[in-house]
Every structure is written in structure tokens, then in C-alpha cells.
Design goal:
mainly beta, globular, 123 residues, four-stranded antiparallel beta sheet
Amino acid sequence: QVQLVESGGGSVQAGGSLRLSCAASGRTFSDYAMGWFRQPPGNKREFVAAINWSGSNTYYADSVKGRFTISRVNAKNTVYLQMNSLKSEDTAVYYCAAAFLDVPTPPKEPDYWGQGTQVTVSS
């Protein structure tokens, strides 16, 4: 089992920044590719970003490319999502996810999920 705990969500004005963190425990962190997903109000959960086990490869949804950056520090068992130039449409519950070996880009489903953290962007 992998336990994932997100932090760093909150409320911010449009154009602002937030950094989400996700602390992992339970298994060898570097065995897992990591991802961030989000679920806007009234919508399905969607892919945001993913990173391979070493951090050498990253993947982004078109809607966040150039504004969001995913990174990881294996020594700290933590993955981050730096979100800049936030827009009202970025408002969602953000979920951290872990996938054994393969990067969790659609259609690959993650193996583990965090509980989510709310991000609200006001215009």
C-alpha cells in the first residue's frame, strides 16, 4: 500500500500562484511514477500532470502547459505541483496519484490516490 497526503491547497486570486505537495509513504517512492489530477465542480476528474520515477520526464495537460510544473524529490518521498498564473477554471479538488512503474497519463490509471486538496481561484 502507498499512502498519499496532499497539502498546500487554498484560495487565491486569479493570476496568483500556489504550490501543492504530496507526501508518500508505505512503499519505495522511486518505484512509482507520480501524477496530479483534478476534479472541477460538477465535472469528472481529469489529468493535470505526471512525472516518471526519476523526474527526468514530465507530462502535462494542454490546459496547464506553461503554467504548472510538476517535480519530485525522491529523498523526501514528495512530489510537488507548482501552479502559476492561476485562472478561475483551475478551481478544483486536486488529487495526488501514484502508479507502479508506468507514468499515469491517460488511459493508464493510477494505483493509489490521495484524499484531495481544494484549490479555489477567484477572479
